[in-house]
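Help!! Second protein's tokens look totally different from the first
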Amino acid sequence: MRNRAVVTGVLALCGMAVVGCGAAAGGTSAPALPQPSPAGGAVAEGAIGTAAAATEAAPRAGTSASASAPAEPLAGKVIAIDPGHNGGNYRDPGYINRQVDVLTEHKACDTTGTATRSGYTEAAFNWDVSKRLVKILEARGAKVKLTRTGNTGVGPCITQRAAIGNKAKADAALSVHADGAPSGDHGFHVIMPKKIDGPVDPVVGASRKLGVAIRDAFRSGTGLPYSTYIGSKALDYRDDLGGLNLSTVPKVFVECGNMANPGDAAKFRSPAFRQKIAQALADGLQNYLT
């Protein structure tokens, strides 16, 4: 999630004290992003994506539950899925660069995200994985809320992404990302909130349980190793992410790997592997919720 905001025509890295949304300072810059299709417009703040809007072009997906398990093990559960960034963010720097309050600091409303060396954008990766994840969760009986409904729009702001999960009273919320660390680094990690004397404090403990469940299922389901460059056993804690600081429901970020690493990037370009990621994330959410 090496976030790069567009500032006066230049893509800047996200965060103030870190290189990427999960990477330690001192990393290499991510490659220039390709220009998405001009189709699509800005997503108004407060718009809540529906699961139905995310199913277009997503592959058919079943469940990994055993024959003895309930047909809909997530029936009655509400899950918020936040595909990080948006494919049209580069088109509206005025919108995405405006500062918002995340309680511990002020930072850009949103950013463009990172990309592989071949130009596959993080925004596109996040959206594809999230569409696949929605289908699996719905097949298991969950009601799913999305923070955006496509990959050609702009935003919403990080503050509004948190508000969408809060408004839905989600039983769990997950923000899907990929990182942009130095190319020699690889592996995935999960980011969890810290207590900040703010709205997230009551759900910090539950968020940690969610994070561990996502971590364990992701490792088992994808075979990807723990991050070699951040966190401890793929678990990292932060207090500078608005999506976590402002959440009143259990929520974590997953950095599925490093898009600047050739090995991780090759896997991310594979639709079959993106399906494997979605399956693992669904399993992690189910393990936490049941």
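Here's the second one for comparison:
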Amino acid sequence: MAIALLVAAFTDLKRREIDNTLNLAIALAAPFWWWSIGLGWADMAWQLGLALITFVVACLLFALRQMGGGDVKLLTALALWFAPAGFGQVIVLMAMIGGGASIAMAAFNMERRPGEAMRDALGWIVALGWVFAAGAVVLALAMHRPVISPDQLGAVHAAIPQAWLLALIALAVVALFLFGFRHIMRRQKSRLPIPYGVAISAAALWVMGEQVLSSALVR
């Protein structure tokens, strides 16, 4: 399974495609995995239902051009391998990794126009902020700790005790992010083929490794 995910990530990165045979092999190997861990019929039905829901949602994203066909098939096949809680973690990690990579690639793909140096700078600040935030969330999930610790929250509250002022600052930051993100999207030189299969594979490998390590420690 881990080898198949590495191959999927490599082929998606190299030629922006994930082979149908690879996705099919991952899906067909799932029943053997169910048998090896002793899943009952009810648990198998849950896995099939999870895969069906994943396929429907992923197809909607494909129709909106937010996900490639190979990514849809890979994510659906992986839904057969993870319990709902574990698969939820895969989805969150995938979204964070893929989102950070997408905005970074979009920033490099911006078309420079005269008189827009400030807007370009804001776009880069937004891109770096987005990547930093995505990295912080991924690290927090990986380390099983909050994104912002109670001590950090306390320090923010001590520095800005007024709730209305904190809300105003938060709204200003959101507005700047939205403006910068809009500028990045409007100045794209070409449509970017995002290798989302890399994000899917990385997230699945991380969750799988974590589960294997947890099982080893329990034993």
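Reply: Different proteins will give different token patterns, so don't panic. The two ends are 22 Å apart (CA to CA).
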